[in-house]
Amino acid sequence: SASAADPRAVWEKIVAKISQQHAISSVWLDEAGEVCEEAGTLRVVFPVNQARQMRTPSAVEQGALIEKFWHEMTGRKVVFTAEATAPVAAAAPRPAADTPTTNDFANDPGIEAAIELFSATLEPEAVKNL
Questions:
Q1: Of 36, 48, 50, whose CA–CA distance to 80 is shortest?
Q2: Which of 24, 39, 43, 45 could cross-link 108 (Cys pair, CB 3.0–4.6 Å)?
């Protein structure tokens, strides 16, 4: 049953769900190390190089989504707590399929907010050069 599910398995489902909606701003979630649920707290340990990312507005919004999806999938309410205490893992090469597309940038809430804030436009050629 979902309530007895391995916390890592539930975490992977949640990350996949968030990644579909926020491809660019959710990449940090893939770096999760230990995933532990106890006493109403969902504690997830990330590499120390993710500390800055964990304080961004998009990460805070994603924390709320994680809590919501955890409750939907397990029936249990938790408070999401992210820690940046794990050593930095060696960078694994990303498969070509994960290369962001113009649509990923255009649909990312962080990019949308920047475009709105600066009255900018997203130029497809500029994205290709990233």
A1: 36
A2: 24
User: Can you say whether the dihedral through the CA atoms of 56, 57, 59, 60 is positive or negative?
Assistant: positive
The DSSP-derived string for 93-105 is: PPPGGGS--HHHH
Task: Determine the 3-state secondary structure of 83 from DSSP.
Answer: strand
Secondary structure of 51-81 in HEC code, one letter for each residue: HHHHCCHHHHHHHHHHHHHHHHHHCCCCEEE
